[in-house]
Design brief:
single chain, about 140 residues, mainly beta, 10-stranded parallel sheet, 6-stranded parallel sheet, 1 helix, 16 strands
Length: about 140
Amino acid sequence: MLTTKEQKRVADEISNSSNVIGKGTVLEGNVETYGNIRIEGKVIGSVKSKSKIALGHSCYIEGNIVAQNADIEGEVKGKLEISELLVLKATAKIHGDIITGKLVVEPGAVFNGSCKMGAIIKDIKIGENNGMHALRPEGAQAN
């Protein structure tokens, strides 16, 4: 059994890890990680991270995104739930609703959907019933 100090060290190592889905890669299915993830390829499915998601200019996501922070340069068709800061770069194309704490939109970015900002969002759950409903306002009940 790990001590509290060892558990914290392991948790820090996991959350500081980085993942890359490269340009030309096509992934069908959901992606979940405790660490950062950079996507340059195509994902047909949802992406969830307890840290930061960076979507490059060649990225295409058809599914929901849940993360603490996100920088988007590519195209997303789905709902975005970002608990802290969402940055839409000039080349970003978003087709779906956004729920975020803070939003930065560079000139040239395209966003089609509704946006809710400043909502208090609870913890991001990884590995729970593959649902992308992990971010809930304070007091909301799980399904």
